[in-house]
Amino acid sequence: MRSFYILKQTVYNIWSARVPVMIAIITIGISLSVLIGIAEITYKLYSTVEEIRKEFEIDIFLEPEISSSQRAIVERKLKNIHQIKSYKFVSKEDAAKIFFKEFGENIFDILSYNPLPASYKIKLYGKMTHVEIVDNVVKRINKINGVDEVKYHSDLLILMEKYFLIIMIIGGSIIFVLLLAMNIFIRNTIKLSVYSRRSQIFILQLLGSGKIFLKSPFILEGLFEGLIGGFFAAAILYFFHDIAYETAIYLFNYNLKEINYLWGISIAVGGIIGVFASSTSVNKFVRIFAKDDY
Question: What is the pTM of this model?
Fold first, then answer.
């Protein structure tokens, strides 16, 4: 009986405030679709940055006349640098093969001898590829006898860290604003429902109704708004996903094709937001209106 009353009252609340409820659902749908889209782009950006960090290399060119014993000393000192994850020796012959593969010409046909130096390709641990750490590693490598030159793309690291931070800040700010907007709209619709039933709430409380019984219809109302808004958000994302995919590939070279469990994620997040916003709102306003003297 109590469950039937709660369900009936929830339907009544939604129908009596159908215009604010519809506005809340539309707001949730649009905001949540933008929120999930930004979250996905941010995640893809983070994954891309991490992949770049994993593949980041430092090229160490050895002196032309370095001996095998000197090279062994170089390797031993490289092993002592704990930021280095792995290193690969590239002989002069290997360098000539790489030159041919990249440029399609034989170095011996051009110069009649091989001027390419032997080298090492160094990979650092992913967390060690920040600009300051890499610079410190390069300084240590430059001090090793037998090392002629060290090259790496410092500009890439600087740009990557700079713009990644900016995008994370902007994305986080937008997500915060959208969450705030959804919370406000749901809270306002629940406030209207509670206010319209303030006399009934007071009577039910006098009859001994508990807080959970009083608040349940409003929390279910918020849950309904959140779930329908989440469904609407998923529909928006699917509708515009092909456009977003082509745009992201063209502008940012990011692959947004894969959206796993989109419906479930959107509806679940919408429901959570709806329950949170409605429960915080009803806790406040039920307490206030229940104390009024009618």
Answer: 0.61
Stronger pLDDT, 261 or 172, i.e. the higher one: 172
Q: Of the candidates 42, 32, 33, which has an alpha carbon nearest to the alpha carbon of residue 167?
A: 42
Could you give the dihedral angle defined by the CA atoms of residues 226, 227, 233 and 235, in that order, rounded to the nearest 10 degrees? -160
Q: Model confidence at 293, in pLDDT bands (50, 70, 90)?
A: very low
Beginning with the edge strand found earlier in the chain, give each strand of the sheet holding 119-124 in spatial order.
84-90, 119-124, 57-62, 147-151
Query: Residue 132: which residues within 8 A CB-CB, separation 6 or more?
Result: none
Q: Are strands 119-124 and 57-62 parallel, antiparallel or unpaired?
A: antiparallel
- Judged on CB neighbours under 10 Å (0-12, 13-18, 19+), 44 is middle
Sorted by where each starts, the structural domains of the chain and their CATH numbers stand as: 2-51+159-291 (no CATH), 57-152 (3.30.70.3040)
Q: Among 31, 23, 35, 38, which Cα is nearest to 187's? A: 23
CB neighbour list of residue 252: distance below 8 Å, 6 or more residues apart: 41, 45
Which stretches within 90-210 are classed as H helix?
Answer: 92-103, 107-111, 131-142, 154-196, 198-206
Among 272, 262, 266, smallest CA distance to 230 is for 266
What is the rounded average pLDDT of the residues 218-233?
84
DSSP 14-28: HHHTHHHHHHHHHHH
SS (H, E, C) 149-175: EEECCHHHHHHHHHHHHHHHHHHHHHH
Question: 26 CB contacts (<8 Å, ≥6 apart)?
Answer: 229, 232
- How distant, in Å, are the alpha carbons of 8, 35, 193, 207 from that of 197? 14, 33, 6, 15
CA distances from 117 to 61, 93, 98, 101, 107 (A): 6, 9, 12, 17, 12
